[in-house]
Design a protein that fits this description.
Layout lengths: L2 E5 L3 E2 L5 E8 L7 E7 L6 E6 L6 E3 L7 E6 L4 E6 L8 E8 L18 E5 L2
Parallel strand pairs: 2-10
Antiparallel strand pairs: 1-3, 3-8, 4-5, 4-9, 5-6, 7-8, 9-10
Amino acid sequence: QVQLVESGGELVQPGGSLRLSCASSGFSLDYVGIGWFRQAPGKERERVSCISSGDASTYYSDFVKGRFTISRDKAKNTVYLDMTGLKPEDSAVYYCVRIGWCIAEFRKTNSGAWGQGTQVTVSS
């Protein structure tokens, strides 16, 4: 059964760091790319970052470039999003999903629903 479970979100002070995890099962990261999206209250869901299958090439939205790093551990079937220099505007529910190509307009595949996400709150 294909499953993706996000974790790692919590309350953190501005300037702080967090590591989000996306634990996957039912498929191989060798063949499927993973993307992170986020959605803040009252705002549309937006793309954050993605990592491709195969060569693990990455993409970052401009608003996280230089602060966030996406990586994967194939042995653990897990994708990580390391977030540093967090700002209040990074507060959102973060979701990981399977994607097609890891490009600027990366999209969730048609299979599977959005998960519960993990809440990141950046506040003093």
